[in-house]
Amino acid sequence: MQPFTRRVIHIIQNIPEGYVMTYGQIAEAAGSPRGARQVVRILHAMSAAHKLPWHRVVNAKGMIALMDEESRFKQILYLSSEGVLANEEGRVDLERHRYQPGEGLVWPDEVQ
Question: Which letter, b or e, does each residue of 19-43 get, where b requires 16 or more Cβ atoms within 10 Å of its Cβ?
Fold first, then answer.
């Protein structure tokens, strides 16, 4: 597994309940500011295997980006159960719910 992939997985696993991060924010924190699309691919391919809280990831506007109606509903339901409400357009308040992991993330040995 590539270091970027390991970092993305680590970041997503550590988004606390009640918060969200954007694809771009995760990519930047993992060391690739332009890697948002790669974060999407990692989430799609590895969410189940790594038990990632995929529902805590939204796009740069705070929108739920899933187009599949069932998955979109599931994400809204999971987020609302954690206190993160989406408006009728599927947008969450990033000012209130964006998780900022802070400067100088500490990577476990296996993530570096």
Answer: bbbbbbbbbbbbebeebbebbbebb
